[in-house]
Amino acid sequence: TSVEHTLCHSHTVGEPEQHVFGLWEETRAPEDLHYLSWEVRANDRRFHQRQQRRSFLCFEWGKYADNAVRSYKYTPLTFLPLSLYEQFQRIANVYFLLMVILQCVPAISTLPWYTTMLPLLTVLSVRGLKDLADDLVRPRPDFPLHRSFTSVRWRDVCVGDVLRLRKDQIVPADLLLLRTSEPHSLCYVETSDIDGETNLKFRQALGITHHELSSEPVEPTLLAFDACVWCEQPNSRLHSFKGVLEWKGVRHLLDTDHILLRGTVLRNTDIAYGLTLYTGADSKILQNCGRLSVKTTQMERILNRVVIGVRKIVLLLLMVSLLLAVGAGIFEAQVAPRFEVLSALGAGRSPAYKAFLTFWGYVILLSPAMPMSLYISFEVVHMIHSLFIGWDLDLYDAGSNTPAQAHSTALNEELGQVGYLLSDKTGTLTENRLLFRQCCIAGVLYGLSQRHTDTRTTQHTPLDLSWNPFSRGGLQFSDQRLVDKLRDQDSTEVREFFTVLALCHTVMAEWKDGTPVYQAASPDEEALVGAAREMGWVFLSRTRDSLTLSELSHIRHYQLLALLDFTSQRRRMSVVVRDPEGVLKLYCKGADIVILERLRQDCLYAQGCLRTLCVAVRSVSEELWEEWSRALAKAAMMTQCGAVLDTLYDSMERELTLLGVTAIEDRLQEGVPETIATLKQAGIKVWVLTGDKRETAVNIGYACRLLDPDTQLLQGEELRSSSLLKVTEKRRKHSTSALVITGPELVQYIPNYFSTILQRHWPCTNTRSNNQAFGEQPGWDGRFMALSKLCQSVLCCRMTPGQKAGVVQLVRKHTSSITMAIGDGANDVNMIKMLSCSTFCTKQVPLLWCMSGLRSTMASVHRSESQACESDLSTQIWAS
Amino acid sequence: MGKKVAGSGPCSRIPDNSAFKQQRLPAWSPSLTAETVLPFFYIIGLVCVLLGVALFLTVQKIQEIQVDYTTSGTCDACFEMRSNKMSASVKCRCSVDFSLKENFQEDVFLYYGLVNFHQNLRRYMDSRDDGQLVGRTTNLKNPSTYCEPFAYNNGTPIAPCGAIANSMFNDSFTLKYLPPTGGVVIVPFYRTGIAWYTDKNVKFRNPQIENELLPQVFQGTAQPFYWQKPVYELDPSDPNNNGFINEDFIVWMREAAFPSFKKLYGILNRQSKAIFEHGLPAGNYSVTISYNFPAQYFQGKKLVVLSTVSWFGGKNIFLPIAYIVTGGVILVVAVVLTVVYIKIGKKGLNMEE
Asked: Nearest to residue A583, comparing CAs of A617, A615, A555?
């Protein structure tokens, strides 16, 4: 308590987004930290185990959850209460329970009590057994790792443990990073299972722990580590963390950069040590997963409405009972006294009381009017349907040996009722296996123009790359001129172009059969570095501050001075390197609009369904570098705020000289055009949401037959004209039309759905309340939807993940039909989370489009915790 | 499929290519279009109408006569006497005359009918002990609580207990034929064989105690309040028709569904007298009633019904009418649908568009 007392100072609780943290003593006044009530004592197992959370049946007590991976819902003890609790959330079951209770009242029981009990028991046991069977087949993973440097399993991890993680291990609990084997205790994590972003993020340990715990031998030092951490109670905010590390009498502020979240994967870091803060159900990701809820399908909701809803069966039943009871009352009052036998049976009760009893009697008698068996039939049909989905040969992918899998049996029939299909492009419509197709260097175009030619049928004469010992093949690029130029020694632009490709990336090299294989966060980086390798500019290896290239078999070392990371906002990345001759260079590559802002050249490839990246260079003077690096170091010391870094990066990435443009092709998945055509024939509105440029998106639209050659394209500006809808209506009679709109336009017209707040806080923000906060423009969203309803398809380009989620919301708000989103789980998590019915596509499984529940993409480890329902969407089903 | 070898081998998860799993089992999925559905409407409508007409003609052939004897004939006095509870045990006989206009062919059934008697009240129908009626000796002395308040008479268990048995119909009839040549011929009726086989042989059994006769078995039980004689003396003429297996009793215990009903009393014995060999001849008849059952309390009527039967059963006009009406409605709908289809349907949207 004494510690707690010293922490309690008066100050306002900070606003939600506080990026500016550092050493607390230096930078900030003491804060009111009483909300940091979660205490973690390092290496004090006894303290935490005393407060271990225990549970019996549904009751839980204790503070700290254990870390066992619960891929199953039930234990033998909790099965009965949990399953009953879930089942009695269905109103029909409650109704029948009431009936059974009524039957037990002798005065009104019409039938022996077991006659209504039996059907109820049947329903309950059929459902319960089905849930149990679903639960039993789930995998129960547990992974080995090292705690206190002995090997333990996940479930043994306890709050306060110091864990050692190795490369490519999944982080088992929310950890405070103490130190890593890398300089400055940096480490890289892949967070794609949490937020869908595939690029690696770096996390850095506190300076104090890095320095104090680095002394050899490391592990005894860590075992003796006896700090105390005060942090927030477990919560679901993935991108915020507040806490204080108290060690040796000094307090250090902690924030989200020091935290490794459960479910992330350690990358490019040999060993990392972490102090366990939240385990199991307390971890951020599981807090985010929310409670398991009974999913109801549209069908079930309709059924519930019909059975229970106002003016429906129940009311009818009560009305009938009431009428009959009134009749019985009249009979008892008028007729029965005349019959000595009947009045003797009444035993002196008043007619009104007898009518009251009769009413309940009739309620029981008429209860078979409730379609109870329909519920069971639904269950059985769902189950068989999902089996058939798994058995479908057409949904089996031979390449990855995976059949379709329906994870939740309840949502199958929704598939047949989809009215709106919102699809991601990359990885869903296209393979996301990128191919280097063309490049333009110094105004000369290399590579064939592939516009209007089907790339699959074009025969290439493969380049002769036998001179290159590092070649692994697979390059679909055939322009001998470029190879000649490269080997010709005198064309500096071409050489520099490939130097950039080989230098400016975050790819890691792995050696296999004497040639480097590249591991990249994004497929286009891999494509570019791979293309450079084939051309003889081979990226060999990287250390923290150097890169090694083999330029046509000459090994050259570049000193890596700074790496200006790629983010989806910046849409570019740069490196500052010192080449072996000692010249400072800034190499930059990024989306053409972003780069073109910074120079003056045009060389557009977007017309050819190709994804373009510009490559540019800037010579940096020593003085400028000195100054900038000092500023950067200062910024890095002082803050972790992205905005400051962004402006700093921005100041560096200026006055670029364009080297050239690369064009990468993202191939359509097999069968996509046919599927889209069938979908369109079935009257399903297909929306494609993509981050690409308008031209690319439109071309992809043509390629996958989303747009026909005679389709009338409507632009976003047309939303402005008031007579638009009428005009469109008229046009529609002659030809089909499609709407092409960009993300910025949507933000401009319908800001309430696409506010920046939404983008940042999508996991936990109630957007409805935000809408009120922002100046709503009534009518624009309605107008947009009215327009899009007239269109056969809608292409939304240049969308950020947050905007995708906004579109989904918009569609859901304005239509009653079932909306389905398809994505491969990377940047589409937001979109998919917005829906109850969505499709999760496993990577590289062509045309095996699957359907997932709300949170299937949250984490593959925690997958079983999500009631994912994967199912299919093939042409076969839609054709029927 | 089968692009790669990965799809084969023992580790393969490729689904079975069987007819069941790939949904290739022979199936018939009819598509419901106007051309396929409308003929069914016409056919079903016609079948219903024709069936209804056929049944109607059959029912029309059945001969039936109902004689209301509540207050008619000489029964007026008996009616008055039964209104007075004091004279409930005084015997009263009366007779009613009627005539048949034509011969009643073949088997003739004699029914008694009650109007306005609610045998269908739920609590009334529950008021019986099936365990007792099936002959369980334990239930004989311990009637079920369902029988309350007709279970005990001053502590003595009532057999048979319950409201139904208590209110048993206890008029008896003698039918006399008055031939034109003069004289009186008593019409013979079978008084057994009028209950359901299962009722007579399964649901109703006399309690059996070894070496004891029926009256001894029923020793220690009381007769129902309204009864004039105990259950083992219901039929003095036939010792095997006494106790719970008395057929009049069984017929009464099978409750009627409506307040106005008729129950079988006897079947004409055509063998015993040559004159009745082909049924009842036309002419004058007189029915003599032993008038016991009071009807004035419930403002009811008591009837004697004579009827022949066909394969269809007794005279019931409801089913033929129902068939004719249903068939007619279906035909009208069919015509409307045809008109709609011809006027609009052909031009309308179909699934393809």
From this structure: A617
SS3 of residue A26 by DSSP:
helix
B236, with CB counted inside 10 A (0-12, 13-18, 19+), is: exposed
Task: Decide if pLDDT at A354 tops 70.
Answer: yes
Quick: pLDDT tens for A218-264. Answer: 777 777 787 888 888 887 666 677 788 888 877 888 877 788 888 78
Distance of CA A191 to the CA centre of its chain: 10
- From the number of C-beta atoms within 10 Å of its C-beta (0-12, 13-18, 19+), residue B273 rates as middle
Cα of first residue to Cα of last residue in chain A, in angstroms, is 69
Catalytic residue among A134, A161, A424, A666: A424
Q: Do A388 and B124 touch (CB under 8 A)?
A: no
- A740 DSSP β-pair partners: A715, A795
Of A331, A339, A347, the CB nearest to B297: A339
* Cα–Cα dist A98/A103, whole Å: 9
- Mapping DSSP to helix (H, G, I), strand (E, B) and coil, where does residue A712 land? strand
Contacts of B123 in chain A (CB under 8 A): 342, 345-346
Peptide bond into B160 cis (omega under 30): yes
Q: Is the alpha carbon torsion for B219, B224, B226, B229 positive or negative?
A: negative
Q: What is the rounded average pLDDT of the residues A717-727?
A: 60
Strands B152-153 and A186-190: unpaired
Q: B5, B8, B14: best mutation site toward chain A, by most A Cβ within 10 Å?
A: B14
Q: Hey, how many other C-beta atoms are within 10 angstroms of the C-beta on A868?
A: 24
Which residues of A114-267 form beta strands (DSSP E)?
144-147, 150-153, 162-166, 174-180, 186-190, 200-204, 228-231, 243-247, 250-254, 259-260, 265-267
| Contact between A345 and B7 using a beta-carbon 8 Å cutoff | no
Whether residues B4 and A340 touch (CB distance < 8 A) is answered with no
DSSP annotation of B211 = T
C-beta of residue A538 within 8 angstroms of C-beta of residue A532: yes
Residues 6+ apart with CB under 8 A from A370: A92, A95, A96, A307, A313, A314, A317
A424 annotated to bind ligand: yes
Average confidence (pLDDT) over B268-276: 86
| Segment holding A666, helix H or strand E | strand A657-668
Contact present, A829 and A724 (Cβ < 8 Å):
no
Query: What is the interface pTM, i.e. ipTM, of the complex?
Result: 0.75
A-chain residues within 8 Å CB-CB of B353? none
| Closest of A346, A321, A354, A339 to residue B259, by C-alpha | A339
Strands annotated E in A494-649: 508-512, 515-519, 537-542, 546-551, 554-564, 572-578, 584-591, 610-619
Instruction: Quote the DSSP letter at residue A545.
Output: S
Q: Tell me what the pLDDT averaged over chain A comes to.
A: 69
Distance from CA of A419 to the nearest CA of B (A): 16
Residue A424 falls in the annotated catalytic set: yes
* pLDDT tens digit sequence for A411-464: 677 777 778 887 777 666 776 667 777 787 777 777 765 443 444 444 455 566
pLDDT at A138: 57
User: Which of A22-31, A750-759, B179-188, B192-201 shows the lowest mean pLDDT across its residues?
Assistant: A22-31
- The single-letter DSSP state of residue B3 is S
Residues A877, B290: Cα–Cα separation, whole Å:
79
The two three-digit tokens of residue A782, written as one number? 């309605």
CA distance A56 to A52: 13
User: Which DSSP state fits A852?
Assistant: B
pTM over 0.90: no
Residues facing residue B288 across a β-bridge: B95, B174
**Taking a C-beta distance cutoff of 8 angstroms, is the pair A779, A719 a contact?**
no
Judged by DSSP in three states, A162 sits in: strand
